[in-house]
């Protein structure tokens, strides 16, 4: 590597990328360079994917979990749960050895209408009803483009806090981390993904977040601070730019004499473990491609971009590590440059490294990493006490839904779960027949043609209740569920000696997915009213209602098109609702068919390619709808004919423990990975 006093390589290094350079048709070529810094940049992606660099030995882990979401202060999905629970579990297990994980996250301020956060004096009131006392430790100056495509040094106050045995570092900046929505914000965007009042979108927001974390790390290393991290955990695409900053930007800064050799060595060799959740979300931004790259790499952007060569692979769209084809892609950087990549279940690791439907543009890169043993699958854990039936939570829903009364239960007293089923049917019937009561208890939920069944169900013990309360998005397969239910009733709807099942289906999300469910209700009401009246369809989300649904249900439907890990099936199992799932992603790793839930024998990708199961079964069933219908029917046949088996499966499901820190739990796998660089 050049020393600081080495000759510069020409004016081209000091160039930014032309505005909207990616709007024109262009092809990337990588010329032969003589400068050792640029040679290193050209080879970095290849060497990382091949795992050529020896893992840096870590005696005492001081890791940073760098995350857009946390369950404690701003949660939108499963990655927020992981960002809080993994560090907390790790610190419980390993603090006594001197190992720890701290959480680095934005200090969001504002009100989206659904999420609200504020800072009052030194108390931060997060969006998840927790508050925390902050200690301001410094203010950073972070270079990033402003409104006029010029580099501005933005002030970022840095705060330290402690919550649930874990240190939190909060980064504050009104422009980028405000969650007050712009009038142009898409109604589907909320929380930390808002298009905000300063017209900052999610990709620009988290590119700035990555740049700020980089500046903070650089500051601490320069000051020889004991708080400097020796391992970075980038939690999904939001912090994906950090790998490019520590690896590429440090080398480029060294190249032009703006960084000392020792600091550059520290930054580029800082190990990064990238946690990939759902590969469908990558942080694309076509319109701001040049703006973001110039913000991240400043006056070395052109040189970095022109040398950011990806490892040779079969996908012509991924020959540069910073963009995919012609579009900035924040996940791309980590997939190419991180020291290790981890995804959230072993089966999902297999899917994304084999199937284009799952790995998308990065399938080939991840296949190379898997073959060279630097890509792993570790199932997400949870804090079980937070999701099992909880007496305090049941007290809350009893107040919400008074005069109805739900009982606390566990696997030793399933009779009380039966009482909850009875009470829940009365609650649904009350909501159906009393609009004033409905508005009082679930004002944010839209219901569709609810029916009063209080006088029609003769034997609730032998009436299966099935629910699906996930987000209304294509991923969750509500169209598959709707067709499977129609197939089910066509097969069994005329039987008179059984109580037909009750389905409670809905959640917050897309209108088109909601229409699948309303069409299902309408179709069955027309063809078979006795079956149709047992379909309950709603849109919206209220925690108390979702909780009441799960503690009353016998089964939880998960016809997901993909499910990287899935926490919903774990929550359902903990409450004694047996999952009925498609065999994809983490559902394969967490549900044992016939033991603690039901899974399809086969699973197909969107192009009808068999992904899971044997070929003969795939030829017989042909598609996911048929496979799910068959599994749904098997689950209900077991309920009607072998109820003792259902009870034993329910006990098994409730006893199953996916907690991070149980014996052989996921936290021990992460500890091994952090220490050794492999499992």
Topology (elements, then pairings):
Blueprint: H1 36-49, E1 62-66, H2 78-94, E2 100-106, E3 110-111, E4 116-120, E5 123-125, E6 131-133, E7 135-145, E8 151-163, E9 166-171, H3 174-177, H4 202-222, E10 231-235, H5 241-255, H6 261-268, E11 272-276, E12 284-285, H7 289-297, H8 301-307, E13 323-324, E14 327-329, H9 330-337, E15 340-343, H10 346-354, H11 356-359, H12 363-371, E16 375-377, H13 391-400, H14 415-433, H15 435-441, E17 446-448, E18 465-468, H16 478-492, E19 502-507, H17 511-527, H18 529-532, E20 535-539, H19 543-552, E21 555-558, H20 568-574, E22 578-581, H21 585-590, E23 598-599, E24 603-604, E25 610-612, H22 615-621, H23 624-641, H24 643-655, H25 666-676
Parallel strand pairs: 1-2, 1-10, 2-9, 10-11, 11-15, 15-16, 18-19, 18-21, 19-20, 21-22, 22-23
Antiparallel strand pairs: 3-4, 4-5, 5-6, 7-8, 8-9, 12-14, 13-14, 17-20, 24-25
Helix pairs in contact: 1-5, 4-5, 5-6, 5-9, 7-8, 10-12, 13-19, 14-19, 16-17, 16-23, 23-24
How would you characterize this protein structure?
This protein starts with 35 loop residues before the first helix and ends with a helix. Helix 16 (478-492) runs parallel beside helix 17. The strands form five sheets. Strands 7-8-9-2-1-10-11-15-16 form a nine-stranded mixed beta sheet, sandwiched between helices. The protein contains 25 helices and 25 strands. With 679 residues, the chain is α/β, with parallel strands linked by helices.
